[in-house]
Amino acid sequence: MQQILVIDDEPALRALLRNFLEDEGYRVCLAHDGQQALSLFEQAQVDLIITDIFMPERDGLEVISTMRQRRPGLPIIAISGGGRMDKRDVLHIAKSLGASCVMPKPLELEDLRDAIRELLLQRQPQPPVQSHIAGRPTPE
User: Fold this and answer.
1) Pairs from 78-87 (Cβ < 8 Å, separation ≥ 24)
2) Is 50 exceeded by the pLDDT of residue 78?
């Protein structure tokens, strides 16, 4: 079962995402800020991260940058309502730092589900494809 780390300082959103993701068949671990997330990241094998941008301690931009350095292929979804900045600007910055996908708040859960499935599917190792002519493999 794949594990998702959800990082957000809003308790209600963390609870909503936990319930939604567990119903979708994922294991979920939660962090209330970037500092706690980085500690959990060292302990747990996560397959995907969903992080808010504006949080106390370490913000989502720091989280994205740090985790991108530690595990370059890890899918990261950045979410934001914008705070004092326009959310499009914040999400653009998150994307430039290495977020795999960005989504504005309020979240559309179906869109989030689809993004998670797509990102996790991209991580699955694909079997090698062999070309055959008349039953014999052809050199690649």
Assistant:
1) 78/51, 78/52, 78/53, 78/102, 78/103, 79/8, 79/50, 79/51, 79/52, 79/53, 79/103, 79/104, 79/105, 79/107, 80/52, 80/53, 80/54, 80/104, 80/105, 81/54, 81/105, 81/106, 83/53, 83/54
2) yes
**Per-residue tokens: 73:** 């292929």
pLDDT tens digits, one per residue of 79-130? 998 766 667 889 999 999 999 999 999 999 999 999 999 999 987 654 444 5
Q: Report pLDDT for 88.
A: 80
CB atoms within 10 A of CB 62: 18
Position 50, amino acid? I
Could you give the domains of the chain? 3-123 (3.40.50.2300)
pTM: 0.86
